[in-house]
Amino acid sequence: MSNLNKYLQMIGSMGLNLQNQKNDSADNFLLSAKNIICKDGFLELRKHIRKVANFANPIKFLFPFEEFNVIIAATDNTIYILNERFEVLTSTGGYSSSDWVPCLFNHRVYLANSLDKAQVITNTGVDTFTIEEVNVTGTTNKIFSFVSAVNSQLVFGKLNSLSFWYLPVGNVQGQLSEFDLSTAIGTTRLGGYIVNMMNLPRDSGMGMQDYVAIFTDKGEMIMYQTTDWSDADSINYKGTYLTNPFIGHNFITKYLNDLLLLTTNGIISAQDIINSGVSASTDVIFSAPINNQWNTQNFKIPGYIGLVVPQEDFMIFNVPTTTNENYQWVMDLSSHRWSSFTEINCYSICNFNENLLFGKDDGIYLYTNDAIPQDDEHWITSEIQTSYSNWGTINSKRFGLFNTRLLASSDLNITYEIRKELADSTYYNFISSSNIATSSMIDGGFFEINDAETDQRHIDDLFYWWIDDETIDPTHKTVYWTVGSNGDLSEQNRWHSGSGYARNFSLILRMKTNNITYKLYDITYQFSQGAGI
Fold first, then answer.
1. pTM for this one?
2. DSSP string of 341-354, one letter each residue
3. How far apart (Å, rounded) are the C-alpha atoms in residues 515 and 441?
4. Dist. CA 144–CA 117, nearest whole Å
5. Any idea which of 2-11, 336-345, 442-451 has the lowest mean pLDDT?
6. CA angle 339–516–398, rounded 5-degree value
7. Residue with more model confidence, 187 or 395
8. CA 191 to chain CA centroid, nearest Å
9. Smallest Cα–Cα separation from 352: which of 58, 68, 60, 44?
10. What separation, in Å, do the N-terminal and C-terminal C-alpha atoms of the chain show?
């Protein structure tokens, strides 16, 4: 079983995709999971980004050339090479698109974008690089839609073609040879064209046991094993698998010994597709709100990027829209929670020197956890997304239990714990109800606590019941507060419904701080055996 499949099983038990069942579940449907948030996990509220390089035009492509400690950036018409201080070392202009597909091979970076001739970036000395056309022959032009390294061979693909072209093993330039997939053993069954190729490990490393996965725009994954595309005796067809159409050319994210494939139905594991022995795995790790970002227009435009951020143990995906907006969806690989960076309208993302970089309208920004943001930094607000767990904007916490029926005499107990780390005696005022649609809210409460230094810490309108069905008539609500000797807070809220019922409801926790950290450690819920449950 792949590591991703283990994540999928755990995520599935948490009801990640239950939102799709919102309107057709049985009246007595209840979520099986009790823990909304893992006890040993929390979402740090303090994240921000800092500009590290100014540009007059949007940075729509970022790629680390880590061997030489430089970053490759691109606008719509120019490619830049920057050093670790984000100073421009060299640049080349005159291009038609920034939708580059990168490939690292033999101390060089190759780039293709379907409109311009493929480029190769080569180091020629200390902080000196060349950006030039690839030196290949054997095809009518050098305009390729992708370039990839499979085993020890460079392969090139063209838009609307089921052929790919390859160099001799180990070569970085020279005569290309064609491999026509439409006439080869194990041909594609749906036609279309090749959108990318990648090694898929079948053992502990890169070697003869690895597969070569060939992906088409129709959602087919065609598997071969070979050590040299020019040696017919070494080419072994392993199978063809059907999944959903892939989004763009940068749809592949390497993760451990797996390839995570960005499709119109979410992220799918290549290993799981093969292990299933049939068609594509139906398991996805994208929740419904992310799926809703995609339509036939959106997934054809450039800008879809996915990468693993190992230092923070999460995956981040850039999702562009036709309205020139970009969203970043994130999955925590430890707790399996989804989040959305709601204030970074960026075009590109990458890892560089153990930092996360964003390409925006006016330059390159660095994602940082520094304690105090500078004047040119921007706060990041986050939103955790599952069908019933949601960090809203301005660091809100909301979870809704869908398709529950709370009739008279039905009780719901919710317990959550917030642990605070006191920094100084600064007064903290939390967001009030004026920032929420009060017509759908039942007002929460107000409390203040005194810590050992006796300075007051205020939490204003800490929680709300959000009732989606106007027929609800709650008869009473009791709040229990407990403040431990170490200043930790815990609250139990018992809510008893009167007449009517609540089809959907949510608990909203809104928090905003200056320089104090509040961590949400745990939320659990439980229904009593009341009428109608």
1. 0.63
2. ETT---SEEEEETT
3. 29
4. 7
5. 442-451
6. 35
7. 187
8. 30
9. 68
10. 37
